[in-house]
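Quick question about two entries, pasted in order.
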Amino acid sequence: GQPSPQQRTETLGFYESDRGRKKKRSLSDLSLLRFISAELTRGYFLEHNEAKYTERRERVYTCMRIPKELEKLMFFGIFLCLDAFLYVFTLLPLRVFLAMFRFITLPCYGLRDRRLLQPAQVCDILKGVILVICYFMMHYVDYSMMYHLIRGQSVIKLYIIYNMLEVADRLISSFGQDILDALYWTATEPKERKRAHIGVIPHFFMAVLYVFLHAILIMVQATTLNVAFNSHNKSLLTIMMSNNFVEIKGSVFKKFEKNNLFQMSNSDIKERFTNYVLLLIVCLRNMEQFSWNPDHLWVLFPDVCMVVASEIAVDIVKHAFITKFNDITADVYSEYRASLAFDLVSSRQKNAYTDYSDSVSRRMGFIPLPLAVLLIRVVTSSIKVQGVLAYVCVVLFYCGLISLKVLNSIVLLGKSCQYVKEAKMEEKLFNPVLTATPGKPAGKQQGTFKSTQGISTDENGSTSVTNQPVHQKENMPSLLVTSNSDQFLTTPDGEEKDISQDSSELKHRSAKKDLLEIDRFTICGNRID
């Protein structure tokens, strides 16, 4: 039979009392002693998330490798800038002399060629004339008056002026090489082409004005730095050096691709080399004021070391955090070094399409002409040459500069060949294949174009800079020049892209995608489009 209501009540009471006893027992288990014991004896296994911890360890190793890899790139890049800078003082005057000698003695040998001078000789003469004109124009700029005018300003004003000068230097450099390239091409383009531009003379005056204004801008930078060195409490120098650390804030929290980091690295190389030349100018001016007393050089030495050390520290910290936040390995700097080496090796070929100093200017934004004008102006005003012995010393010093330039070029070329070989890019320099023009057979095109720097294709279908047509007619489409070093950078890791599939793909590719054609003028690592 069914249980009575009384039995049901007793059964429910029994279950409720049993549940209460279990609840009291579980509450008694959660004592403070047991909690502390559990916390002290609790374990976990890192191998359950092995990929995550391995990635974190690799990031640490990458940050530890950044200083070494970055300084190797900086060291190589600074010597590239030094090679282009020494070229202006050593080989450029000799090349101008040879070009003028050819121009004067040309009637004696007869006109064997349509050109009076070769394009490279025309560019050399233009560079030499611009250098001489701007040097004499700089004599009308009073350095002493500029120094006292800047020294009379307050510290805050000088800090703002120095920041404005840095931005203005990058902006004017971004436009300066375009002005010089426009002048060179206007002076050397084929004469049968119908001109749709203004002529050589307006371009020449624009180039002279640019070099002069840029030289004055760099002089104001050097003067401001000199005022900071000579201030009594060194507060201005400290503020100016702290400005470098502000650059970290504006860079590390932005998204960077490998190509953007390459641009910023080139900008850092140019900035560091320019600062070294500015420090040299400051030391020359100070030594002149103290009658070349060698004891004063040791007074300047701590400040010079502080400036150099702050530049190095800021670059290391900036690149370390950029690579960390964007998951970029430290091996990318060897790729950047190989790309710069590829530019050097390709420009040293017999039929190069550009001078190496101009290649450095486009790649790094370093234009040596304004800096060379200012340095010549400072040296000639600081050092007085009197007597035969002094002129003999000048000749010996010039011979020493030529020897340094030749030695530096030989070492750089050897190291560049090594870097290109390590990057497995050397075969892309020696496979000249002429691209056929649509609508014309290959035989006719070979008769129309001279074999110089241009597009070649290797076994894998990638293009390289080996041959470029010199004479192009109007009805022929322009050929897009690409560089294997740049494709080496733009191709993602682990992917192989066929860049030269057909001619239509080359036409539709934007010029900004080809790193060789992109000017390396940057503002804090951002491309100026």
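Here is the second entry:
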Amino acid sequence: MAKAFFRLQKFLRRTQFLLFFLTAAYLMAGSLLLLQRTRLVIQQGSRGTSTNQAPPVPDGMAGVGIVDPRTLQNPRPGPRLLVGMDALQEPGMDQRHSPRWLVSRNSELRQLRRRWFHRFISDQEPMQTAGFKAMKHTAEHKGTYMGCFSDDSRERTLKGAVFYDLRKMTVSHCQEACAERAYTYAGLAYGAECYCGNKLPATTSKPEECNSECKGEKGSVCGGVNRLSVYRVEELRAGARRRRNVIYRGCFRAPENLTDTFPASLIQPNLTVEMCSEFCSKKEFPLAVIQGRECYCGYPTGRFSLHDASNRLLCSGMHNASSAAEGKYCLVYQTPVQDTRCTDRKFLTTKSKVFVALSSFPGAGNTWARHLIEHATGYYTGSYYFDGALYNKGFKGEKDHWRSRRTICVKTHESGKTEIEMFDSAILLIRNPYKSLMAEFNRKYAGHLGYATDRNWKSKEWPDFVNSYASWWASHVLDWLKYGKRLLIIHYEDLKQSLIPKLKEMVEFLNMTVTEDRLLCVENNRDGNFKRSGAKQKDFEPFTQEMKDLINRYILTVDEALRGRNFTGLPREYVPR
């Protein structure tokens, strides 16, 4: 009996070991398979190529506000596409006449958005590295250390310009940025923030209170908590600064009382543009106004809005005494100094009761619209994504959780039913798909402010990109028209052409009120830091005729859908192309 029991015990031990071994092997095999599949998905996303074929599109549109003459002259047989209100109804229609891209849960578009998000995140590190390389050359620029000063955010002295860089801020980078804008002093705080101005802060602090190490330069001090490490920009660069970034704004009719309109003035024989600009820059005014021997400094205001420019010939001979005596016209120049009346921003003090989206297709000007909204309202905007490059440009809402409701609105490129219905209302920003596709392609290969190279445009990536993203442009608008609860439609082209009226619409939609001077300040800073730089190709046409036919049909579809919801149709410049 004992022998039999011993054998049974031995068998059970072997069985336990065998079960343990099989369980471990099963788990390891499953883990390896999961890792392999995950790597495959990421690799496909990083390559940016799409295996999706272009979805069905309409070949002809009857009763559409925008008409493509090629469609009327050369009708070709093709799959029928239901548009307008029919396209916005719940998917229960005959699937033979219902293209997949009109359905919000279209799996292909959802995969495309996921790949875009993966590429968006993976692109951040190379862009930040590139920014670090660009900063290296400024290391030789050294200023004079003036000391540690108290920094009051409500009464900040160095408020002429503000820059952030959470990872790569250095003393040289801050000094160079302030020097390029003709400021005398550069101040650093919190190890990552840079402030510029022409006056030293009034209150000094103990040297040991400036104890924050620069994020991009070990061993260097970049201020502290409510403390500024202040440097004087080197004088040898002063001559170059006087002539830098002075922009001619035009010839304007002078206000009736110049001294009441402009807070600072100078009378100088043989007055030059450089003299007046330097004087106004020192006074920290963005406008330099010249009339004969007189120089005035100030801001755009209701009495001097810079909206109605006159013929430049009326200002010819302005430096002549007899012409100046007439006092009818004046020359206006933009100095390197920023208009600081609308640069102060903060988070909402109480959570917003209305959850508002700022929605657009990628490349449609969402970042620029955020810049305008933030400076007009004085409140930060949030983002469904985190973009470190934008945070470094001053968009502090990037770091805040997108559902915190501490921001005035939230940027999103999402267009699924669930994602749309989370918001109570939305500003839907629409841009010409030709421009949007090119802008997003530029961002993909050269960041927010660069241009893709000729090699990028001629690669196989570009046709695949257009084939996939063009349908996303259309479905994005159609989904928001279908599921959005309360919408304000803003066309990017209208916003550029009539900035203040359109910006007023957006501000009122956000239930905010702003002063006219603040709106004029936004207009004066309309571009911010978001104009692309680098070699832009002239007379460059990257779209083939096949691409144009595809995009034009999507344009006609979206146009009819907008009109079907009693919105203004797309601007006529969209097609024909």
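Reply: The radius of gyration is 29 Å. Confidence is low (pLDDT under 50) at residues 36-105, 125-141, 236-243, 320-325. Hope that helps.
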